[in-house]
Amino acid sequence: MEMENCVFNGSSRRESIDHREDFPNIRSLIVRHFKGIWTKDTLFRRLPVLQWAPRYGIKSFLSDFIAGITVGLTSIPQSIAYATVANLEPQYGLYSNFMGSFVYAFLGSVKEITVAPTAVMALMVQQPVHDLGPAGAILSSFLSGCIMLLLGCLNFGFVVQFISMPVITGFITAAAITIISSQLKSLMGISSSGKSSEFVDTWINLYENIGETRLWDSILGFTSLFILILLTLIKGRGKGRWKTFTKYLCLLRNATIVLGGGLIAFVCSTQQNYPFKLTGKVASGLPSFQLPPFQTDFEDKQYDFIDMIRTLGTSVISIPLISILEIVSIGKAFSRGKLIDATQEMLSLGCCNVAGSFVSSIPTTASFARSAINSSSGVVTPFGGVFTGALVLLALGLLTDYFYYIPKTTLAAVIIAAMMFIIEYRAVAEMWRTKRIDIVPFLVTVVACLFLGLEVGMVVGIAVNLCFPLYLASRPRINHRLMNVNDTTVLIVRPDSDLAFSSAEYFREKILKLVTRTLPHIILIDGEWVKFVDSTVVRNLSSTISDLRQQGRHVLLWRWDKNVRNALYRFKKHKFMPLFRNDECAEEAIINWKQGFVNESYISSV
């Protein structure tokens, strides 16, 4: 008897040890993480230039040179145009266009991506520029870069997974509509004192000033827009030499339109005729290399660093988040099946923005249109960005005097044409065809971004979209069936997913309703697919078993995972341990349990 007690006590002690929850060894995790930092593998992953530089040859150089120059010719007029979207002087668009290209050439992992100012980034810094002047945009670039570097160092690349395709599509659609709306007055030559480019304010402003429409600006603007749309649609169609000609004409359509508009304006100016509103003087020379502005004076008011942070508000978070989303989604679009390291893209883009803030850059990210041009131009490595940046520097040093004659209406046409094709019409059609419920977060995001602003709209869209998986998690599918085993009615209940606090009450109510309807003798809960439960589920399951026992019914737990069993043992071992069954089939579990139940009843009676 003593030996039996010793064996029992020993096994109980072992079981109690087995039932303890395993906590991760924080020290070993930290040591393993920091050991992984100083490996050759990590070095090659964090400095992608080391992967392609040893194989770099003259053929790759020529391909990158052609692609880089082609992208640069497109990027220069777009950058000037995006500076106007941000309510900044034109040179700030060019200041933002070279440092990111240089940095990403050595740290970027996707050869097609070009880092530069985009319409969305320009739109998102409008308010900082309105509140703090150029210093607001430059500090936004620095802070955005710091946040992206921090997220990258913490391996927070998974954060972007919480923003779904419908929300991203809705955000891009709303941003494109807002930008198109803001450029209509420039397209028609309307002079307006209204600086806000919010969707509603823009249309109110346009309605109030529609009488100031200038004929020649409108003619040049709509003609330029028509040509740009046409060149975008034909995309180098044709045969032989004509196909080659149309291909490069389509690739350089922005530069062609801006050059053509500027030439017309210059010819008119020689006749002392100025039918168009011109860009005006663009500051020449390279920007000075200096620290980002941590204090500033704007509109007779002084701001220290804390005041500037307070004024920037939520844009400090929203700008880096949108930047990361853009570069990761564009990287995936050009990955051709390869995995994209979101953490590396965060780190590289963070470095681009921090470095750019030292040369008066606004926040930058990947540009889909320019990345597409880079790809179609035959880029081989990210080094093509060096030639793009060099061309921008050349333009800043030698060509700024000629930018004076660029009509504002042609810049507006360039922006509107780009935005018309950035809207993902196909994605909306795919959502409708594949899963129509996804239209809800898409529409909510679009409407919220248009009427509440991009930052608030993005948060609203994410919140609404997260309600769907939360609802599904709180309503797991619960299958059930009745069977008869030796004149005993058995209800088998099987949840098809893990059980968390959000589904605890639903699971309990579902079982009680099924029992009330079917009146079984035994309830067999099949936990084959349940790999996780929390304390709320454990407590609810315990109370459910107690309620069913009061009704004179028996509960068995069949095929439950070891970790789940241990969680239940830690709560009430004496209550749950007799309930678990691991038999091959349900009938066998019931028969064996009934046999054991009869034996226990006999022993108790003796």
Automatic annotation (TrEMBL):
Q: Which GO terms describe its cellular component?
A: membrane
- The identity of this protein, by name, is STAS domain-containing protein
Q: How does it sit in the membrane?
A: Multi-pass membrane protein
GO BP:
transmembrane transport
Which domain of life does the UniProt lineage start with? Eukaryota
**Stored NCBIfam families:** sulP
Q: Taxonomic lineage of this organism? A: Eukaryota, Metazoa, Ecdysozoa, Arthropoda, Hexapoda
Q: Which InterPro entries match?
A: SLC26A/SulP_dom (IPR011547), SLC26A/SulP_fam (IPR001902), STAS_dom (IPR002645), STAS_dom_sf (IPR036513)
